[in-house]
Design a protein that fits this description.
7-stranded mixed beta sheet; homotetramer; Aspartate Aminotransferase, domain 2; alpha/beta; 14 strands
């Protein structure tokens, strides 16, 4: 039973493990002040072309989201997010647990536009009886596989600046977004257009680890305290530093993401060729084909993947995810199975 | 300029003020242990026919909602509310500030039905990646003037019991609900069908004050600590006790609410007679007529009321509120003005 | 049985009740925007000689403390307080419930000195493994009846400014402090030396109510949201405005406090004349004589007061509190009783 | 420059890295449901002789402490801890940030006794004006290197049971405690005497990882939600499972701890032989010798360790820590240096 259920079913890319073994006995100071973390941050600052960025490594995405958001906001300030946003749909109320409302927007494609935010601002104007929207949360790629274009990002960024809103980008799958075929954004663009974002390691080849990047250093004031207070400061911070060093020293991060995307697109083309459509256009390593329930049942005998939601009596959306670790022969076998059950 | 904007524009019913003056120099112990509070609670326990209820007096509705809810829930538990619910629409994120998500339901009439809740429970089933719905919040009368029938309350109550959900009723305007013409619920029914509810004083003749009633005493364990911790325990608790004593000793509470309702219904009939319709059927002291914008503009020259929302280019919903203090001659004058501007 | 147990055993000063009755039927807008509140704030700004101060009225001291502190601090910031401070000793963890540690200092007299704070700053220097001390909380008069001198306040204020610490003064009994015989501070001095303070009404003649004063307006940014979110914004804000109006229009506030102090001092002299000493020197309306346990037992048959703590087998400290409402003939009777049992 | 500053300066024990490499490409389900985690939990349940224990793996100690404590306590409940306790002294207010006060006890040896707790309960009896002590937090070994005896644990456990208090043991260095020469406790005793405890991996050979053990399963109700909500649920939970599997499959955990203790004791004997004393008797891998400041200065030229606190003009306490990774020849060299500078 091969799994297309998520992009964290395997361990880490072998280069990362090799480096962990190599450096294992070197003594290092703790809590993220180790040489590897320092070096990795230097490389990231170059990649984003922002020598002043404040960078921190933490274990996971939910942790990142809750710490960044609770660090930036005062008690009465709220977040605007697509209803599909990870912070709303998948994090067990982590943000609300820090005291803040998430105001959601229904979207087709998981992306926020200035108009969506404008509507929220108007709805939340009856001060002080309502919360104050203050931070816009977006994901790239989104939780339903779509990506932002450069012009979309630019407009969103300008809108946020004009309205005194923070723009925070969840990059749990940022590699996959930036290596999608129709992408026109660079890592440095992401840094330019957002106030703070993170680069996800866990879903792209690391054992664990996300790199939080504050593009304006004053937004990171005292952020080290926040990490410690929320239990996110690893004693052996080297574990995170070494991984980001390996991922970004030679752009391994992007080649891993590209592989994941290619595997997904290969499946997407095959599905399309069988005449099926998709919930959202397939571009990254998460695709959402709409298949007959009978076909889904058959495929689930040999492959593991997530049944996203029913469409009607006959059809349902499924989510198929590939990753840096997906083997092409497994993809080919899946395509063969698909052809088998649909013909 | 006479105001129909809310039901807290005046002070308190004169009987209350008289009693405050009368008792002023009697020494009492503080923090809600005074004789007046004790007596008022005794009367309330009789009225609800539940000698075991745990009762507490606090200053206001938002305070009540946040303390009751945060006392009952563990960190991962969430609230289900109509989107118009006061806790979602009017309390500046007070509930989220205690760490809990409010899951909202779009409704026509501001009321929750078992099906609404069933849908939420299904959506929130992917444990532990989502919050756990645990408390159902309803208001009676609702924020848009509607009321629950006995059979609606019974079904909701049964559904909550079967699904291990708390049922909490916000009674900021409970008097108005229970004295509406089409009401078939009693105060004792409310106590029977809910786990916890409150009786609003502020919007029905008190200077301030709400009576929180836990129908099952174990739900109130250590609730005194909660009140103190949230800053809700008044040193001179007598101020609240005396008011509830006056309001419930001879059912003044209900006669005040009835007056408010009658004043609103008089206006509602007049509006209906002019051929206008309503956002929700008018039953209590809050009515929501849909009027031509030109008519609204004219009326606003002489009367203060709240423009609720636009319907289209020509029409808008307004909210007109009456209260225990509304003078009938002002109502008559308003009706005359209405007739004047619409003919 | 006459009570010297606290200064909130009676209702409100008759002038306040009279004004409540007088203004009762005047319609006012809600939530603190009423004319009375506006006028009262104007008078207070004159008294403190700071036309730019931001002023808010709330119900009680614990509420004030928790809202002011949680509004000013970021999550990792902490408070420094005397161990006898009300926020540490009497508020059921209200401050910690907003997420902040209170770092305590053992004192003889309930007052903080720059050296105490300096010690704390040194102890809490191992960033980011410790909290960051950021706000100094003091009370005047203190919880054990002592008061700050002008030079003490000045040194504390300078120290806080130099070390980027907020100075917050709890004035639950500020009237009593400023009318003590040995006091050399004015209300305007208090405003000058602190960042934020409050003037307590509940313990000096009001039914309830404290006036929060931010001396620098930017510290109050969005404070209206905080009040609403914590359930502190009364619908009938007029109740607070009217009371402060009466208390400060003609300095009633100070004459009431003076009376309370004089009653306490009369008792203190009598106790001293009997040869007894005190936990702290008696200056305000709270005195802490050290009496033989047998004497205490006898006095408790006729009077209610608080047994503070045992000193040894034979002696204990008691707390005797007088107020604006204390009748001189009751004080005289108490003194007679004291003489009776000690001779 | 060799470091004796902490027990997390190196990576992980080579067996752990080997297993990570070996299992790397095996697909596993995420979020702690992987086969390795399941197997490791089974082994731990056997070791503690409690087949019903609920076990969870998380990244670090602060995270563990804050999630366990906030999961067990209601808002008004407080923790009792030694002032040296990690939650009070080293976690940036992580516990208070979840809303709870830590009530501290001054101790000589970092350990709590029933009398200490009894005193606290008496001090905190003025309900509801104070918090309610509900959880006793202890560490074994303590933050100053001492350990609990079986009879101490038994008395503490009985006292907590009798007073309806949770007993929570921080076992960040539990291996070191249980392999100390004078220890008479077993892992199964720890499970028997506490309500919940954790076994620290980070400070004893793991890259990261602590095993939280609830000895009574009802205390763990919905704990999975808590982990997710606080950002502690690793997508690749296998990383934690594999490490605990390796550490406990053949008692590697205890042999690593024993090595660390032996290295520390070797240094301790040498220090003692030079005539120096200690802050606390040396038993585990953390020792606190009191050395002349001149000696400290000399040693710091070649070795890194932590200056704990000054004793007087001439002497200071230092903290020397060894670990599973400490090389004996480095220990010998340090002893030689010590002899050199002190003779």
């Amino acid at each position: 039973m091969y799994s297309f259920k998520n992009d964290y079913a395997e361990g880490a890319h072998p280069k990362i493990l090799r480096k962990l073994v190599e450096t294992n006995s070197v003594q290092q100071v703790g809590y993220g002040e180790d040489d590897y973390s320092v070096e990795a941050k230097g490389i990231l600052r170059q990649k984003i072309q922002n020598p002043d960025a404040a960078i921190y490594f933490v274990s996971g995405g939910t942790q990142t989201n809750l710490i960044v958001i609770s660090s930036l906001l005062r008690p009465h300030e709220a977040i605007i997010s697509a209803k599909t946003g990870h912070i709303y749909a998948n994090e067990a109320g982590a943000i609300e647990a820090t005291g803040h409302r998430i105001i959601t927007v229904e979207t087709e494609d998981g992306k926020l536009k200035p108009d969506d935010i404008e509507n929220i601002l108007q709805t939340y104007s009856h001060r002080p009886h309502v919360v104050k929207p203050k931070l816009v949360y977006i994901s790239n790629s989104t939780e339903i596989g779509t990506i932002y274009t450069k012009s979309e990002m630019e407009r969103l960024s300008n809108y946020c600046k004009s309205n005194d809103l923070y723009l925070f980008l969840d990059g749990a799958r940022l590699g996959q977004a930036l290596t999608a075929k129709n992408n026109d954004l660079t890592l440095s663009d992401i840094s330019h257009y957002t106030d703070v974002f993170y680069i996800g390691g866990t879903k792209n080849g690391a054992l664990l680890g996300e790199a939080i990047i504050f593009n304006r250093i004053h937004h990171a004031t005292d952020f080290d305290y926040m990490l410690k207070q929320k239990g996110a400061l690893l004693a052996k911070g080297r574990l995170l530093g070494i991984q980001f060093l390996e991922l970004f020293r030679d752009d391994l991060y992007f080649s891993l993401a590209k592989h994941g995307n290619e595997m997904a697109m290969k499946i997407a083309y095959a599905i399309e060729a069988q005449g099926y459509s998709f919930l959202t256009p397939p571009h990254t390593n998460q695709i959402f084909p709409i298949l007959p329930k009978a076909v889904i049942r058959e495929l689930l005998r040999q492959y593991d993947f997530y049944e996203w939601k029913a469409v009607d009596e006959q059809y349902a959306v499924v989510r198929i995810i590939t990753s840096w670790a997906t083997e092409e022969n497994k993809v080919d076998a899946f395509i063969d199975s698909l052809k088998g059950v649909t013909s």
